[in-house]
Amino acid sequence: MGSKLNSVIDALKRSKAKYEDTAKNDIMTALLAFPDLAPEVESFAFPNSKRVPTFRLKGTIPVLYKGSTYNIPVALYLSDAHPYYSPICYVCPTQNMMVKESKNVDAKGRIYLPYLTDWRYPGYDLSGLLQVMTLCFQDNSPVFSKSSDRSRQSATSVSNQTPFTPYPTNMPAGMPPYPLTSNTGPQAYQNYPSPYPSYSGGSSSQSNSMVGTVDATHLKDSMLSAIGDKIRQRLREKLETVYSELESVKRTQADLESGKQKLKQYIDDLNAAQTQMEATLNIYKEKKTTLSAVLASCGSDSTLDIDSVIDASTPLHRQIIKCYAQDCTIDDAIYFLGKAVKKGRITLPAYLREVRQLARKQFVYRATLQKGRQKAGLPV
């Protein structure tokens, strides 16, 4: 299986598959159920397209037909968008076989099934397609053996029964040999039924001994088997559609449940944020009421000293505040003296004299402020 996995990966790369991982998983699942298929790349033209390197699964699938198991050769061509587009499938008869036309197989061997028409991944996949093929071919074999002169001579010399054709050994290129479940020597070939139903073109040369072996019990068993296969096939077609729709509904339900949880989380977060904002708003309203009351009580009091309203907790901090206020006051005084000089309200000598005095005071205040901040442990 490891070599097949490498072959699948290599073939997908050569065919330029768009969904390599998904296609690989689908193909490997089909190969586990049908190991006689082999991956390869072939130049193939899809409808309304030119020839391109295309991934192909070619080999045989086991089909139970009228009580015997036959290996039907098929080829599946996968598009570069597999598994999201259905493959194109063919029956590949060998040199001693012919295609039998039916509602599911045309003269060129192309296979038509409702499973392909209704293809929709992941409800439809290669494993399910191959199983549907086996069920369909149980009712109507897609190939039959050619009659040859050699087989007629062999039939005349041995008996009047319809000749049995051995399993073909010369397969077309790329076709894996049919698996044999018991003896493989040439002497064992006549113990096997023909790998595909043999048609004699309406000849009635079968012997009476052959006819005598088919009694009512055999006919009853054959009819029961055919009816059971037909019922299973139709039931599978119905159930596959129902199962695919059910899976789609389940995925939609899972997405809705996930969205429901996210919406619930969003609502919880919004409710928590609203509660927090309402609490903060109540605090602000209380502060506003307090400030309004203070302003109302202070507005009518003309004897209130503004400088005494704000007071420091310690004498050192009180000195720091005083020096800072004096420093800012001197800055403002120097600024307005400069404007007065520009407007000619004071003379330049008077301006320089006042600025010199103010600068001396400001130096003292700033030195005291810096020393006080150092003592108080504040940044300088």
Describe the structure.
With 380 residues, this protein is of the alpha+beta class. It has helices at residues 2-14, 20-33, 114-117, 126-139, 149-158, 208-212, 216-299, 306-309, 315-343, 348-376; strands spanning 37-45, 51-65, 68-78, 88-91, 97-99, 143-145. Among the domains are: 1-145, Roll (Ubiquitin Conjugating Enzyme); 311-376. 54% of the residues lie in helices and 12% in strands. The strands form 2 sheets. It has a 4-stranded antiparallel β-sheet. The protein has a two-stranded antiparallel ribbon with strand order 5-6. The longest helix has 84 residues, at 216-299. One of its GO terms (cellular component) is ESCRT I complex. One of its GO terms (molecular function) is ubiquitin binding. It is found in: Endosome.
Helix count equals 10
Examine the secondary-structure arrangement and name the CATH architecture of the domain at 1-145: Roll
Helix content: 40-55%
State the secondary-structure class: alpha+beta
The largest sheet, given as strand count, sense and whether it forms a barrel, is:
4 strands, antiparallel
Summed over residues and divided by their number, the pLDDT gives a mean of: 79
Unreliable residue stretches: 148-214
The value of Rg in angstroms is: 49 Å
> What's the CATH topology label of the domain at 1-145?
Ubiquitin Conjugating Enzyme
The level 1 CATH classification of the domain at 1-145 is: Alpha Beta
Judging from the principal axes of the Cα atoms, what is the shape?
rod-shaped
CATH superfamily of the domain at 1-145: Ubiquitin Conjugating Enzyme
Distance from first to last alpha carbon:
79 Å
* Beta-strand residue percentage: 5-15%
Sketch the topology as an H/E string, one letter per element. HHEEEEEHHEHHHHHH
Number of strands: 6
Strand line-up of the largest beta sheet: 1-2-3-4
GO molecular function: ubiquitin binding
Domain SB: 314-380
Region (Disordered): 144-210
Biased composition (Low complexity): 189-209
